[in-house]
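4.2 Preliminary Data

To establish feasibility before requesting continued support, the project team ran the inverse folding procedure on a target of 261 residues. The structure was first converted into the token representation described in Section 3, and no sequence information of any kind was made available to the design step. The complete token record follows.
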């Protein structure tokens, strides 16, 4: 699916003639559901399976009973009453869940991209930039990124502020593709005393996760598994303690989970 398809669900509207009730339905949907990309309104006699496939149609909304197409069909009234809207809301939610599920197996697991040598705990640093250097150093030593990678992260933070601080006491460092030598790699650095990144709510940063990826989307599986740790209150508390063996167990457990994203 393209980026456009993540925000626009392609639908066609059907009725007996293509000029009556489906046009009324089209007007109603445009006002209520901007996320639906309506290709057009048609008569049921003008649509074929080949048309649906060639135009990438996700759903059919029809004011008359329709059978025989591979594309899911939802029968609604032209006036789009509450029951009809519930059907469409369920359709949109189902589409989003299927989109999310399509990324669950993209790329390696969190355990694959954070080996033992990419975890350091109880590290000390006197400044944000020193913390960034020490966090990126593991990936530099593995030759997964060039030394410039850390410098680029600092430049981004100087320019745009502490947007890489993603939650209480946690930062996710990342930069552009050009200084990355592998498809995807990550590291975790625990700072014993915490580091001031200039974030009004989430400082001090105690855990820095460094992400390096050279290919779009290949990191999504590992990042989804990481989010499980960050979003779980108990797991996050264990992460903050900086016990390496415990962190490795958290990574292993998240990597084996079916719910990656």
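Position-by-position output of the design step:
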């Amino acid at each position: 699916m393209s980026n456009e398809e993540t925000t626009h669900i392609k639908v066609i509207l059907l009725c007996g003639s293509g000029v009556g009730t489906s046009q009324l339905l089209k007007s109603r949907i445009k006002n209520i559901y901007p996320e639906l990309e309506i290709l057009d309104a048609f008569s049921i006699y003008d649509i074929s399976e080949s048309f649906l496939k060639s135009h990438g149609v996700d759903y059919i909304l029809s004011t008359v009973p329709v059978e025989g197409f591979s594309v899911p069909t939802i029968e609604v009234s032209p006036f789009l009453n509450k029951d009809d809207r519930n059907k469409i809301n369920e359709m949109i939610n189902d589409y989003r869940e299927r989109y999310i599920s399509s990324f669950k197996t993209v790329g390696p697991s969190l355990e694959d991209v954070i080996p033992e040598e990419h975890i350091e705990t109880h590290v000390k640093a006197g400044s944000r930039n020193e913390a960034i250097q020490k966090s990126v150093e593991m990936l530099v030593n593995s030759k997964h990124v060039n030394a410039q990678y850390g410098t680029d992260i600092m430049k981004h933070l100087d320019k745009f502020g502490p947007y890489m601080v993603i939650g209480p006491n946690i930062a996710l460092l990342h930069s552009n593709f050009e200084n990355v030598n592998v498809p995807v790699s990550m590291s975790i650095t625990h700072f014993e005393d915490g580091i001031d990144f200039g974030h009004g709510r989430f400082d001090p940063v105690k855990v820095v996760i460094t992400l390096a990826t050279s290919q779009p989307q290949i990191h999504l599986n590992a990042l989804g598994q990481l989010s499980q740790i960050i979003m779980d209150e108990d797991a996050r508390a264990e992460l903050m303690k900086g016990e390496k063996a415990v962190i490795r167990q958290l990574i292993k457990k998240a990597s084996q989970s079916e719910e990656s994203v």
